Amino acid sequence: MATATRSTKYRRQSDTDLSRMEIMEGAALCFEARGYSATSLDEVAARIASTKGRIYHHYASKAELFLDVYRTGMMMNFQAIEPILERDMPPIERLKAVLKAHVMCVIRTKAFQNVVGQGVDMLRHGTMPANEHAELRQLAQLRDTYSEHFSKVLEDAMAAGDIEFANIKIALNSVFMCINGPIVWFTPRKGQDQKEIEAVADECVLYAIRLLGYTGKTP
Amino acid sequence: MATATRSTKYRRQSDTDLSRMEIMEGAALCFEARGYSATSLDEVAARIASTKGRIYHHYASKAELFLDVYRTGMMMNFQAIEPILERDMPPIERLKAVLKAHVMCVIRTKAFQNVVGQGVDMLRHGTMPANEHAELRQLAQLRDTYSEHFSKVLEDAMAAGDIEFANIKIALNSVFMCINGPIVWFTPRKGQDQKEIEAVADECVLYAIRLLGYTGKTP
DNA sequence: ACTTGAACATACTATCGAGTATGTTGTCAA
DNA sequence: TTGACAACATACTCGATAGTATGTTCAAGT
């Protein structure tokens, strides 16, 4: 019986997760298109051919839904780069690989990454109700951790003499602006296959490492 | 009498412009902080220690106010770079100068530039009431013209052999992401003088031209 | 002095959307 | 089979805010 109960529980949990993911995907698209506050939950519901009741069954508030999309977007980023951080390779190659993985991830999860950006802004400007503000701060720490990973990779490559920059804060910000660019300007074309997308990503990575003073050869 | 009438008219026009500018500055700060739709006109009014009545005396709608801020932001950009475009100088130097001027301008007019960004997004995603949509398109054309100026400067520098890139659209987008970065991440410190701000701008420009393959010497 | 109109402020309306309360359906366990 | 509960849908409430209608002030023209 214990087994039966547990399997049931798991299946249900799985169903719930699926439903929440569907809601999040609709929400991410709406938030991306119109921004957090301009998006009504009725719109989100309509996008997934459903109703507001379903959303409120899974989320206590609009803010919680937003935060879940935010968190999920960050998780996608971590999953994209963490395997590479553990691999043993020359710093400059790791840098390239991490940048590439990030760009590919943001292109694939564009809507979610846009929400992440909105979340960062929200914290910066201190909007959003006070009760959810705490979770927003927590998520911002997650973002800082993510940023720290890049800092490390940058410093390693710097120490190896492959790149050079003056102020690491400005350099890192500029790199992020560059590799996050597709979130803003990338629009998927019809019939655009994986190869073409990779070509775009490669060019972004090229510009990002050039920005860091990489010349293509180790002098 | 004609003279008197005209001088009166001018003074009044000047007063009106001043009042509108004050409203726009408050609006720009609010829109930057909370986004277009999350910003109420009561907030904007409060920020300039005034009331909604004053805003509606000068603007027919919230959208019109937004569009005026947008337009003003673009004008600021044009005024920053146009003198340089007319100067006679080597392409690479002109490129550097234009980038520097742009960065200084966005730092100085941060809130307005943020609104410009929101306006671009709005057009891209087709939000905003249909009647104002036309003017939004018009403003987007202004933005395209601005972008065209940079394209020209890039191509000249490319022809002179000072920089090189694969796809000009991606390169230009990346450059813009980089030099518009301060709109997102720059926060003015107290007691930060002009010199320090220029140092930040210079570093942004450095990264932007590096991104374009500039090595510092003409090979 | 008095009229006029610009430049506001004040007081109100009407709508939209977040949140809630309640109803319906299907599934599983006992 | 029935009771319970998850997973929704439907139907409401209520506060916030864009927009409007009206009142007030003051400076300039006559």
Automatic annotation (TrEMBL), chains A, B:
Protein name stated in the entry = TetR family transcriptional regulator
Q: Which Pfam families match?
A: TetR_C_24 (PF17932), TetR_N (PF00440)
* Keyword terms of this UniProt record: DNA-binding
Whether DNA-binding counts among this entry's keywords is yes
Question: What are the DNA-binding region positions?
Answer: 40-59
**Highest rank taxon of the organism:** Bacteria
Provide the species name.
Answer: Hoeflea alexandrii
Pinpoint the HTH tetR-type domain residues.
Answer: 17-77
